[in-house]
Amino acid sequence: MLGLSELASTPAKTRYHQPYFTPLEVAYLTEKQRGKFSETQEEKARQQAMSLIDVVGTQMGFPRKTIATAQTLYNRFHLFFPMKDFSFYDVTMACMYVSTKLHDTLKKPRDILMVSYAVRFPELAAKIKVVGGEVDMDHNVVEADRKRIIAIERLVLEMICFNFNTRLSFSFVIKLGKALGATKELIKLAWHLAVDSHRTLVPLMYPPHTIALACIYLAALLTSFETPVLPAPEGSLNQTSHELAALLGQNGQWEPMYQAHVEDLEDIVHILIDLLQNMSSSFPSSVTASPNTPSSPSPYSYQPFNPNNLPQSSIPFSPSTSAASILSSSTSLTRLKIALKEREHEPRERMPLSQTDPTAGLTPGSGDGEGGSGGVGAGLGKNEGTVRFLFGPPGSGTPGLS
C-alpha cells in the first residue's frame, strides 16, 4: 500500500478498454485462465454460470438485456482472472449486480443473493410461507457473501474501464430481419439464438450487428436444411428460409451494406451449432436438487473454483430457443455442420485492435507494457498511483476517466 507522497510521485498509468478480441486472442486468454482444467470442464462451468445468471435474473424480473450483459461480463471476467482463484457463485452474482447498474435495473446485492439462495437451495425456498418472502439464511453468511460481491464488483468495473456503454444484438435482429424480408417466425427464432449467443464467447469477438446477421443466417439454415424448396405464398413480400440462407451464405452486396463478412457469420454459426449440440446431448435438461443443506458448512464458506465439484442445484440447463424439435436431433445438427464445412470460406484474417502481436501484453497481472500502459489485466484491483481508464483501444481517440 503506497503512502500519499509515494502516490503523488508515481507516474500515471493508462488502461485501455478493448471492446472485442480476435479468436486467437480469446483462445490464448481462455487457455491461460483455464489453468490445469480441461476445455470440457471449462465449458461445463461456463454453462452452469450462464444458467444460474439466467434463472436468477428471470426470477427477479430483469429484462433480457440485463441478463445477457451479466453473462457477457462473466465470460469477459475469466479472460482476465484465473477460474481457480474465484468462487463460482461470487463472480456470477457480482456480474449480475454490475449489469443492473449498467441498465438502470438496480437491485441491492442482498436482494440478488436472496434469490440466488432460493435457486441454489430449493429445500429452503420450499419452506417460505409468505408469497415473495425471503429464504431464511444466517446473517453472517449473507454479509460475507455481500462483501465478496462488492470486492469483485470493483474488479469488473476496472476490467471494463468504467465504460458503461453496452450494445446488444437483440434490436439488430429485428431491424435486420425486417430489412432482409424475413418472416416473423424466422425473426423470432433468430432472436432466441441471439439470446443463446451470450452463453458463448461470441459477444467478446464480434459486434452485435454481425451476431444478429449470423443468428438470422442460422435460423434460416435450421428451418431450411434438408427440407424441400417451397415457393413463397402468393403476394408475400418475405423471403423464404432457403433464399435467406443462400443470400447470407455467400459474398454479395449485403456485406458492404451491413458492414459484415460472410466468413465471420460462418464462424459464429459453427459456435452456436456446437452450443446447441452440447445442450441437446451432453447436458441434462434439468438437474436434481442439491444434496447439500444449509446445515452443511461447505456451501457457505469461500471455495476456489473446482469444475469437478460444481454444486448441483435446481438450475435448469436448457436453451432459450423455442425450437425444441431442432434440439431433439443432434445428428441433424451434425449433418448441417458437415454441410457448412464443405462449402465454407477461408477464415478472414483479423488484426488485434491494440497491437500487431495477438499475445503481446495479454498476460494478466504481468506488469505494465510500453508507455506506462499495462497488460489486459495488469494491476486491476490495486491502489498504485493514478490510473487513467480509456473507453477504447489505443489510437481510437475515445475519452476516459482518471
Automatic annotation (TrEMBL):
Residues 283-309 have a biased composition (Low complexity). Residues 341-351 have a biased composition (Basic and acidic residues). CDD domains: CYCLIN_SpCG1C_ScCTK2-like_rpt2. GO terms for molecular function: cyclin-dependent protein serine/threonine kinase regulator activity. Keywords: Cyclin. InterPro entries: Cyclin-like_dom (IPR013763), Cyclin-like_sf (IPR036915), Cyclin/Ssn8 (IPR043198), Cyclin_N (IPR006671). Signal peptide: none annotated. Residues 283-321, 341-402 are annotated as: Disordered. Residues 51-158, 171-274 form the Cyclin-like domain. The keyword Lipid metabolism does not apply. It comes from the Eukaryota. Residues 364-382 have a biased composition (Gly residues). GO terms for biological process: regulation of transcription by RNA polymerase II. Belongs to the cyclin family. This is Cyclin-like domain-containing protein.
